[in-house]
């Protein structure tokens, strides 16, 4: 893997924090403080209001950042070419050379991948000591992985004194970390949502042009919640990759570059299940703009209908639901939700529900408040 950015060794005078002299009472074990200002990067998880399995089909989506996310704090390392990192929630550590760290599985793959992919993209990094912690539930379709990639990149860049000028380019780097180092295919939905969302707003993303536009998420007294289906993840990655493959197959049969260019009439002539897969993508794209219209006119009943229609399409046409997810959706609708649907890649994970004013929070529900995009705190 080419490394275009050469690691820079800061000179004595350039070391960040040189003005912060250690106080007498600061004993050696607390030397992290003495090395300089601690930088903290936060990146949120996301929930996709509507527009599922459309990102890798050049389609539309409407995600928003949630308030839960991953925090990476740290500062320059004593040894300029080393990265040391602590995964605080797991009680584990890693340490490796800035150049050529090699591969390590699990959370370490994200850190090593971030270091290499940033350098490959031309960012010169410096050694860093990092601490990772987070409160976004893992493996529930809430993009804890994207939050981790994004927070790591912001922290590494911040410590190296590099400004992030192009957040879309950074989203692509984060997506490469996931595909090349963690081995999971993703579109750009999760990374863009984490990097570009704003408080109180959803983000309409057009994946053909990567044009992103804020959409105020005004729900009045209504509430959005996520409820875990408790489904094990076994099928999730393989099922996700299989759907992407089916979409590629449908494109080549239809002679189109992406399913954004497909139409319902011709899709109906494809052999099953490709006909249904394409129908989901086409109708889901339409539902994104219909949901924006419902939000704009504060028609929460209509928004609920669209969530239900999205779920039916994901269940029947895209076939990414499971019995545990169906039971969760049924439970939420029976409790009076205006709409409920599976979120994220599917095959388990969380269910999103729109609750009417005053409706009690269902058991195990996490209330979703649209939060800020990733930032240095
Ligand atoms: C996962 C992927 C996203 C997107 C969704 C489905 O979350 O990471 O890129 O494809 O599934 O909408």
Q: Could you describe the 3D structure shown?
A:
It is built from ten helices and 13 strands. By secondary structure, it is α+β, with helices and mostly antiparallel strands. The strands form three sheets. Strands 5-4-6-3-1-13 form a six-stranded mixed beta sheet. Strands 10-11-9-12 form a four-stranded antiparallel beta sheet. Strands 2-7-8 form a three-stranded antiparallel beta sheet, with helices on both faces. A hairpin with a 4-residue loop joins strand 7 (201-206) and strand 8 (211-216). Helix 2 (107-120) crosses helix 3 (144-159), helix 6 crosses helix 8 and helix 8 packs antiparallel against helix 9 (300-316). The chain is globular. The two termini are 32 Å apart. Bound molecules: alpha-D-galactopyranose. Alpha-D-galactopyranose (GLA) binds at residues 48, 52-53, 55-56, 186-187, 189-190, 344-345.
Q: Summary?
A:
With 377 residues, this protein is α+β, with helices and mostly antiparallel strands.
Small-molecule components bound: alpha-D-galactopyranose
Query: How many domain modules?
Result: 2
What class do helices, strands and sheet pairing give? alpha+beta
CATH class category name of the largest domain: Alpha Beta
Q: Mean pLDDT across all residues, rounded? A: 89
What CATH calls the topology of the largest domain is Ribosomal Protein S5, domain 2
Uncertain segments:
1-34
């Amino acid at each position: 893997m080419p490394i275009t950015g050469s690691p820079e060794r800061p000179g004595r005078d350039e070391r960040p924090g040189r003005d912060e002299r250690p106080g007498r009472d600061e004993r050696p074990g607390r030397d992290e403080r003495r090395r300089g200002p601690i930088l903290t990067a936060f990146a949120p998880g996301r929930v996709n209001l509507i527009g599922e399995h459309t990102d890798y089909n050049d389609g539309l989506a409407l995600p928003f950042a949630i308030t839960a996310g991953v925090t990476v704090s740290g500062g320059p390392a004593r040894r300029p070419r080393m990265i040391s990192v602590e995964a605080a929630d797991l009680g584990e550590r890693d340490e490796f050379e800035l150049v050529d760290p090699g591969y390590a599985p699990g959370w370490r793959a994200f850190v090593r991948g971030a270091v290499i992919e940033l350098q490959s993209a031309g960012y010169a990094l410096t050694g860093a000591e990092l601490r990772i912690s987070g409160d976004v539930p893992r493996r529930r379709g809430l993009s804890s992985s994207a939050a981790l990639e994004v927070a790591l990149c912001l922290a590494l860049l911040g410590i190296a004194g590099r400004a992030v000028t192009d957040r879309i380019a950074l989203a692509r780097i984060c997506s490469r970390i996931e595909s090349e180092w963690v081995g999971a295919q993703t579109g750009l939905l999760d990374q863009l949502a984490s990097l570009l969302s704003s408080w109180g707003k959803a983000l309409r993303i057009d994946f053909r042009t990567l044009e992103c536009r804020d959409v105020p998420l005004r729900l009045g007294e209504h509430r959005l919640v996520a409820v875990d289906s408790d489904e094990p993840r076994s099928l999730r990655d393989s099922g996700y990759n299989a759907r992407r493959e089916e979409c590629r197959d449908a494109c080549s049969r239809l002679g189109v570059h992406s399913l954004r260019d497909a139409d319902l009439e011709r899709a109906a002539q494809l052999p099953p299940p490709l006909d249904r897969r394409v129908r989901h993508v086409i109708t889901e794209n339409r539902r994104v703009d219909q949901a924006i219209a419902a939000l704009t006119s504060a028609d929460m009943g209509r928004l609920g209908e669209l969530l239900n229609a999205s779920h039916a399409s994901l269940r029947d046409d895209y076939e990414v639901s499971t019995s545990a997810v169906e039971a969760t959706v049924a439970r939420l609708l029976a409790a009076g939700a205006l709409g409920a649907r599976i979120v994220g890649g599917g095959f388990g994970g969380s269910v999103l529900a729109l609750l009417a004013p005053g409706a009690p929070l269902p058991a195990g529900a996490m209330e979703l408040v649209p939060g800020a995009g990733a930032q240095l705190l």
